[in-house]
Amino acid sequence: MSEMTELDHKKELAKLKRFAVEIASEIHDIVEDTVWTNHVKMPELAQKLYEAVEKANSYKAEHSL
């Protein structure tokens, strides 16, 4: 397999960021609409968001983006 280009790395970073934003959006929806019934989902989602952001930030640093 060939090495990834800078553009490939930027696309991968965009995917990682998009995943984090999707989790944040899920948290936002719960807070706005169903916090009293779905608050139990918040710790798991918060952990997933933390990990997704850490992964994106690490990838960005690793590839000097």
Explain this structure.
This protein has 65 residues and is mainly α. It has a single domain (6-62), classed as Helix Hairpins (Orthogonal Bundle), CATH 1.10.287. It contains 2 helices and no strands. It has helices spanning 6-38, 42-62. Helix 1 (6-38) runs antiparallel to helix 2 (42-62). It is elongated. 2% of the residues are buried.
Q: Average pLDDT value? A: 96
By oligomeric state, this entry counts as single chain
- In what range is the share of β-strand residues? under 5%
How many discrete domains?
A: 1
Query: How many individual helices?
Result: 2
- Helix- and strand-based class? mainly alpha
- For the record, the CATH class is Mainly Alpha
Keywords:
65 residues, Helix Hairpins, 2 helices, elongated
What layout of secondary structure does this protein have?
Layout: H1 6-38, H2 42-62
Helix pairs in contact: 1-2
Concise account of the structure shown:
It is built from 2 helices and no strands.
